Automatic annotation (TrEMBL):
Binds 1 zinc ion per subunit. Residues 17-368 form the tRNA-guanine(15) transglycosylase-like domain. InterPro entries: ArchSynthase1/Queuine_TRR, TGT, TGT-like_sf, tRNA_ribo_trans-like. Substrate binds at residues 95-99, 149, 191, 218. It is an enzyme of class 2 (transferase). PANTHER family: QUEUINE TRNA-RIBOSYLTRANSFERASE (PTHR46499). Transmembrane segments: none annotated. This is Queuine tRNA-ribosyltransferase. Its cofactor is Zn(2+). Residues 249-255, 273-277 are annotated as: RNA binding. The gene is tgt. Homodimer. Within each dimer, one monomer is responsible for RNA recognition and catalysis, while the other monomer binds to the replacement base PreQ1. Belongs to the queuine tRNA-ribosyltransferase family.
């Protein structure tokens, strides 16, 4: 019997490491490469589940730390699990809380045992060990759970990154030993900063432990785009070809195209919705900043040819008016457009890979997008 969560490789590009596949889960199949919108607190801000699906979303990401604090994983479990709780019937991936140990370091104390958080809500203690991180994610009922990892702040000395990498491997082993759900995949996370030898060692040791998929972590935490690209390129070759590869926290179109070229399958980022809420929209000619006076009487859509609700019905002029008037519809429409843009970008990338022309497609798209 096939595993409840498994990856099926479909096509590879002759000129790069780009590939297409299908991630099979208990809540449906996801064609890859695929972008996952971030629903930190069991919601993608301002976007109804049906509009997420209409935009092209097939798999979402939710946050272990935040949901453990509010409403609590026990509440979610009693109400039927995360899918029913947030009325999303597609696949869900939950992160482990490792990134919060980095991003909320002023409220976190990290030891070999795990991470002790002081809640940003009321100051209460959340003791997040590798075992607890898995237990929370099993209660939430996500299709894919992530191991707890140590994501070091950059820049840092190589010795500090090596220490964090070794701890990530030790915690990954404890996560694997703690898992109990046969219907939930667990992905390992490769750390190592920009150091090829650390990335290689971490990937190889995690593969030896044996996980259902692998993530490239420790990127988008203060390094340059070149360092992000290097981390991807030195990690992917050491990961199994028959399992999913997930690049954590990356959603800039240029970075997504680079990651696909390196053989990555899944991505997540708050960028499309956060930028949308701040009146910046994605397009193949670069960002469109809707608050600019140039759009005061602009009758054009955000992007010609886009069939999202924002572009198919409204002008840049109207959208600018919504933002200047403080109307909530503006951020909602801009967020939906940005999600639709990224889904369309990866869908077109899948088509190019299937036709063996991804290198040309990527070069043309990067030129159009600009720096």
């Amino acid at each position: 019997m096939p595993a409840p969560v498994r990856f099926e490789l479909q096509a590879t590009d002759p000129g790069s490491a780009a590939r297409t596949g299908v991630l099979h889960t208990p809540h449906g199949a996801v064609e890859t490469p695929a972008f996952m919108p971030v629903g930190t607190q069991a919601t993608v801000k301002g976007v109804l589940p049906e509009l997420l699906r209409a935009s092209g979303s097939r798999m979402l990401l939710a946050n272990t730390y935040h949901l453990a604090l509010r409403p609590g994983e026990g509440v979610v479990a009693r109400l039927g699990g995360l899918h029913r709780f947030m009325a999303w019937d597609g696949p869900i991936l939950t992160d482990s809380g490792g990134f919060q140990a980095f991003s909320m370091s002023d409220r976190a104390s990290l030891t070999e045992r795990g991470v002790a958080f002081r809640s940003h809500l009321d100051g209460s203690l959340l003791d997040l060990t590798p075992e607890r991180a898995i237990a929370i994610q099993e209660s939430l009922g996500a299709d894919v759970a992530m191991v707890l990892d140590h994501c070091p702040a950059l820049p840092a000395e190589k010795s500090a990154i090596a220490e964090a990498t070794d701890r990530t491997i030790r915690w990954a082993r404890r996560c694997k030993e703690a898992r109990s759900r046969a219907d939930q995949a667990v992905f390992g996370i490769v750390q190592g900063g920009a150091h090829a030898d650390l990335r290689r060692e971490c990937a190889e040791r995690l593969v030896e432990l044996g996980f259902d998929g692998y993530a490239i972590g420790g990127v988008s935490v203060g390094e340059s785009p070149d360092e992000v690209r290097k981390a991807m390129e030195v990690t992917s070759p050491h990961l199994p070809t028959d399992q999913s590869r997930y690049l954590m926290g990356v959603g800039r179109p240029q970075d997504v195209l680079d990651a696909i070229a390196a053989g990555v399958d899944l991505f997540d980022c708050v960028l499309p919705t956060r930028n949308g809420r701040n009146a910046t929209c994605l397009s193949m000619r670069g960002p469109v900043r809707l608050r600019n006076a140039a759009h005061k009487a602009d009758p054009r859509p955000i992007e010609e040819g886009c069939d999202c609700p924002a572009c198919s019905r409204f002008s840049r002029s109207y959208l600018r008016h919504l933002f200047l008037a403080g109307e909530m519809l503006g951020p909602i429409l801009a967020s939906i457009h940005n999600l639709a843009f990224l889904h369309r970008l990866v869908r077109t990338a899948r088509e190019a890979i299937g036709e063996g022309r991804y290198v040309q497609f990527r070069a043309e798209a990067l030129e159009a997008l600009g720096p």
